[in-house]
Specification:
The chain is 19% helix and 30% strand. The protein has 107 residues and is an alpha+beta fold. It has one domain. The strands form four sheets. It has a three-stranded antiparallel beta sheet with strand order 1-8-7, with no helix packed on it. Strands 2-5 form a two-stranded antiparallel sheet. It has a two-stranded antiparallel sheet with strand order 3-4. Strand 7 and strand 8 form a beta hairpin. The termini are far apart.
Length: 107
């Protein structure tokens, strides 16, 4: 039946599009530009790690387009034994404003 063929094709197309949505490289993330510097970092109480391979990634300020909100730190699993976490930061631009530079693993 034609209806089944079209429905099956749409389902396959939908699944393919869904997969492609998650195939975008991290470098293609939207650039966030804040008009002012973020407030000073909040003091966080770092709990004991849930596992010895977990690493604390500190919290940071997030620009919502209208105001600053705090994103708390969290533990993440180390991808390799020698990997170290390089925290993200807000970087002042020569043209004005600040852009967020994502944290990443090194090593």
């Amino acid at each position: 039946m034609v209806v089944r063929h079209v429905a099956g094709s749409l389902a396959a197309l939908s699944a393919a599009c869904w997969c492609l949505a998650f195939a975008v490289p991290a470098s293609a993330q939207a650039i966030v530009v804040a008009p002012t510097a973020p407030p000073p970092p909040q003091v966080e109480t770092i709990p004991a790690p849930p596992a010895s391979v977990d690493v604390w990634t500190p919290g940071h300020w997030v620009w919502s387009g209208a105001n600053w909100t705090w994103s708390p730190g969290q533990y993440v699993s180390r991808p390799a034994p020698q990997a170290t976490w390089v925290p993200g930061h807000w970087e002042m631009q020569s043209t004005g404003g600040y852009i967020w530079v994502d944290g990443h693993w090194s090593g």
